[in-house]
Model the fold of this input.
Amino acid sequence: MQEKAKRRVYKGCYLLMVCILPLILFNCTYRSKKLEQSRAYSRLGHIYLRDGNVTSALREFLKAEALNPNDPDIHNVLGLIYSENGEYEEAIFHLRRALALNPEYSEAYNNLGTVYFKQKKWDLAIRYFQKALSNPLYPTAERAYFNLGLVYYQKGELEKAEQNYKEAIKISPGESAPHYALGKLYTTIHKWEDAINEYQMAIKYSPNHLAAYYDLGRVYLQVNSKDKAREAFEHVIKTAPESDLGNLAQKQLKHISAIPGS
Done:
């Protein structure tokens, strides 16, 4: 009797597995297809972003999210897109979702700090930039250091701003933006030679950086190097004659011409 009971149990278990196994396999296959389709939408979204088509990129990443709502990378990109569109609350929602899914996601902390920076919520921005930097494995820490420098500059804490710009430059010396920002800082505190050096470095790494040329020209005027100032302003005018900077450079040239002895 016991053997018969055992056989009935085994038979029941076998039949149960026969019924359940196809469902498990179906669910796994369905899940796999959803993830692959989500990745396809994400790849297409990145292509649209690269081409500057933000609207189409948003559409594709929303499709990707619908199929895979627990992917922190998708939420991070959605946060970036909404931030660029000025939809800050949507951006914050998705970036916080990315961080809930991956609490070590330094890039999402940095991006969240950037949203608060745009909202001029300086202390919140600092908190999240510092949170990004708390991860020693953060591969692009120069971004958070640079962003911290921008926040401290806005707050008038220029020593901290300078320190963070220099940290960004130390990690990635070939980036133009920290050199330009440091040049602006030195211009603010009338450290003319340091400002000239940083603007020149910004131009070295970004030869089309017209704002750096224009600001370099203004600093040359401060140290009475009129010929070098004229050269910088003429470069702006030649490159972008109809731009706002081009018009400002034209005014600066007229100013130089009016200086006695020019």
